Please model this.
Amino acid sequence: MATEILLEVANLSKSFGSFKVLHNVSFCLRRGERLALIGPSGSGKSTCLRAINYLEPPTEGDILLEGRIIGRRRNGRRMTDREMAPQRADMGMVFQHFHLWPHLSVRDNVALQPRKVRGLRDADARSLALSLLTKVHLAHKAEEAPQTLSGGQQQRVAIARALAQQPKVLLFDEPTSALDPELVGEVLAVIKELAAEGRAMVLVTHEIAFAREVADRIIFMDAGRIVEEGDAKTVLDHPCSPRLKQFLASLNLGGRS
Model:
């Protein structure tokens, strides 16, 4: 794995009114690295992920991608959504819910962003979309309406759509939480394939066994703070903090002595 830092989160804080959701969160992601954010509901992990690409603009702190500040001009002024579009394209986001356009075919859902943000010609964007649908094992559904697909299939289309942006890092926000249990495996299998390709990703997940298998590092968050972080297997098998031990015990994953 390369050691160059790809993404840096520096002293990130986020408040909604008087309620502070994130408290000075800092971490780095190296090229090709897979990082999982875990923690109880309300721990701030999804807010942290959404703040990285300014879907939730940080109250304080900086996000840097390849050393360049995200979301702000050099004079400190926040970028508009239009100005931020190329930066967001470098960070492919997969949400809990699929947010596919119902009036577009599966292929056109995937082709839309490369046309709008990357400036690809229509034929090239549609060709790219088909190749990415093949990657997520859905080429045979290319001309169908997304609402005819199962939840797991729609999430795989959403992954293909994120890949179509040709991102430098993939951000997954609880990608299986809206799925019926029998559909979870097909989505996790695709994410695992992407991880095996060496793609950099930050994954917010409640699938702890999956995080242990796929992630290089794990960050455990609670009450908007990083409580513990380190090598995935070490953090989960030999937790140090009482709060992480308590969290894993509640999932019947109490670590190993």
Observations:
- The chain has a mean pLDDT of 92.
- The longest helix spans residues 181-196.
